[in-house]
Amino acid sequence: MKPVRKAVFPVAGLGTRSLPATKVMPKEMLTIVDRPLIQYAVEEAREAGIEQMIFVTGRGKGALEDHFDIAYELEATMKARGKSLEPLEATRFPPGAVVSVRQQEPLGLGHAVWCARDVVGDEPFAVLLPDDLMVGRPGCLAQMVEAYNKVGGNIVCAQDVAPERTASYGIITPGARDGRLTEVKGLVEKPKPEEAPSTLGVVGRYILQPEIMEILGNIGKGAGGEIQLTDGMAALIGTQPFHGLTFDGDRHDCGDRTGFVIANLALGLARDDVGPAVRAYLADL
Ligand code: UTP
What is the pLDDT of residue 134? Predict the structure, then answer.
């Protein structure tokens, strides 16, 4: 079984639900406490043993690449002023460890993943959607890699969603369950509650086999006129092992205003530096 060494970060979406914040700034640069969403996702991938980060970007997303580059002027000035460069450490990578490919048009998540096919090559890979901020110990992708090392194949992160919210998720037709692992028998993109096969939704972490790339290149548009990753994954079911892992931790959907505010509160409260003051303020409120 080949190890998972590469991760794809589809970051070419328009972020219309987060306007006006995302008019000129990528959604993935929205900040939770003191770091952008992309950095949480990249740190999670690094913890899971990922060696190469592949950003699928679009126009206006240059800040994401710059964030993981060396900022000479900033560093030189900070050094000259005797300031610690420690806050920048998690943004440093060896040359070639962060690469980008371009999705020229936002034709959907499946299309964004397909745009990375040449860099991914013939090996399994992870996909992380940075607007889903996953908080867990070990991190979400590390939990998934651990499961992958046992069962192989394809693994999606699964979460029980409210029955009235199925139309916002890819929904799993579940098979046998073994602890946190559920066999995936089928996948439906954004079903209405009355048509949903379960309430087990797919959230923004995936481990996929390279065969999905050829499928994504051929499937055409699905729900919402977009090339859907869910449709590509559905076509793999039955040909390769496919499981959902119910992650042990919390998920914050930061592509949604409420989720974004709650994420700032949750992560702020959990921090030793800002937590006590935030807690005192909330208690006062
Ligand atoms: P979303 O469904 O959240 O879409 O995409 P969006 O465009 O980012 O945001 P809204 O809905 O307009 O507010 C899920 C993930 O897929 C990426 C997004 O960047 C996000 O990480 N994506 C989506 C692409 O990279 N390309 C696409 O064509 C669509």
Answer: 98
